[in-house]
Design goal:
Strand order of the largest sheet: 2-1-3
Number of helices: 0
Protein name: Rubredoxin
Shape: elongated
Number of domains: 1
Structural class: mainly beta
Largest sheet: 3 strands, antiparallel
Radius of gyration: 12 Å
Distance between the termini: 18 Å
Order of helices and strands: EEE
Helix content: under 10%
Strand content: 25-35%
């Protein structure tokens, strides 16, 4: 799974493939892949 963040409204989407449109603001080509913060509790 990957987390994508909308550059327009800041909404985050957790999905397998890159969404074409942001569900929140409806803009297209505005979602960028953001790496989740490293989880130090898991080993």
């Amino acid at each position: 799974m990957a987390i994508f963040t909308c550059e327009k409204c800041g909404a985050t989407v957790d999905t397998r493939c890159k969404p074409k449109k942001c569900q929140k603001c409806g803009e297209s080509n505005c979602l960028v892949k953001t790496s989740p913060p490293p989880d130090k509790s898991k080993k």
